[in-house]
Amino acid sequence: MTDKDKDVVMASRPADADAGKEDSEEKILEDIRQNITLLEKAVQDAERRYIARVLRTTSNIRRRLDGPPSSIIQTCFPADHPLRKYITTAGSGDTPMVPVSSTSTKQSETTSVLNGGPLIPEIECYLVLLCMIIMHDKKNNKEGVELANAMIERMRTFNRRSLDAISAKVYFYYSRFHELTGSLDTVRPILLAAHRTATLRKDKELQAMLLNLLLRNYLTYNLVEQADKLVSKSVFPEDVSNGQVARYMYYLGRIKAIQLDYTESHQRLQQAIRKVPANHKHTSGFLQTVHKLSTIVSLLMGDIPERRTFSLPVLKKALLPYRKLTEAVRVGDLARFQLILGEYADKFKSDKTYTLILRLRHSVIKTGIRMISLSYSRISLKDICLKLQLDSEEDAEYMVGKAIRDGVIDAVIDHENGYMKSKENIDVYSTNEPQGAFHNRISFCLNIHNDSVKAMRYPLNAHRKDITSTEAATREREREIAKEIAEGELDDDEDMADY
Questions:
Q1: Is 422 helix (H, G, I), strand (E, B) or coil?
Q2: What is the DSSP string of 385-396?
Q3: What is d(CA 149, CA 321) in angstroms, rounded to the nearest whole number?
Q4: Residues 170-200: pLDDT tens digits?
Q5: Residues forming a β-bridge with 411
Q6: Cα–Cα distance for residue pair 319/358, rounded to 1 Å
């Protein structure tokens, strides 16, 4: 190949790249036009499944969209539309999209809205949602707050059930923009009013979204009592997406953990983990957050999380401080616990688990006392104070007494001589403990058996065959008796013999 041919090839490469970019932009515009067509069809046919299909394609469009679909916005939104001045600022400075006039023959067959027809609220909210997503991705939070405020004021004037799914997404970004700008507390009255309206209208998706946004709002400002009252006064709707259920269970678990109800908190967090797809890359952050709180709650309950949890690829790096913390709690090493707490204090505070971790100090001391009681039959309180690095012998005496009262160890304290004496280990099989364990297991198996029997499915109307055969036999017997009476073979006195 000559130098002249190389120059020709190198010169053609930028043209090919530009052509590929134009094709990509045109493909995005075509997808948006198709979604607009589906929205119009959903309104005309009253079919919500088309709206759900549109929202499922939003994430794909979001990854490919570098700026607002300017050509579609200019076509759909009139010049005097109140939201147009906010939409034009979305992604300002970016290269505008391909205009409508450059579309192909196949793509020119657009909907009436794209041809200058009336703009229905569903399409309006969908296009504004795309602009809000672009502002969020480009961190144009100030402009996003202005657009979100204007959209919420306009959307509150609509009363259309076809807007329910889209309005839930709009409210999410409305709250998110205010959270990023530090004004999340100002939107609380609007979210409460919207939640009350959604409850009256039985809008389940919006109701679940607003309830989660309100719980997040309260927990952001540590208003745990208000969040608990909201949960007690409201009902989370059924038949909503797994994402909303997982968020709601996480917030409930967080509230219960702060209120010292660790058993209920652990159950809620486990439900949240089961609702999240573990292999989905977009849910890895939420999964890590739930596992962090679940690890602390398990330690507060006295349980040790499974080792394989810390080895999962999506959790291994994020849970490294919590793994070290678990190892310190497991062996009852108070010095190591304090060292890890000081090393990762900023990390724990950013995860909002620092105050819960401070409660683990007593668990570490109890574990250490249990290890000491198993190793020594008799040990002085001074040695316990040195091993656990407590401040004084009085603190050691108090912690040992509390461990004895809670049933952690079986020992006695000699206050005069200042030592702890562990009682001899009694053969557990000489007590009633094995009988109680077997009773619990048998009861569990019987309950499973009873539930399985109740859940078994029998063929429909199978019992009617037996009823039919019994009725037929009865009628046949009655006919035989009537025939015998008619023939005089059966006397009436014989029929009354039993009386």
A1: strand
A2: HHHHT-S-HHHH
A3: 40
A4: 889 889 989 888 888 888 999 999 899 888 8
A5: 422
A6: 18
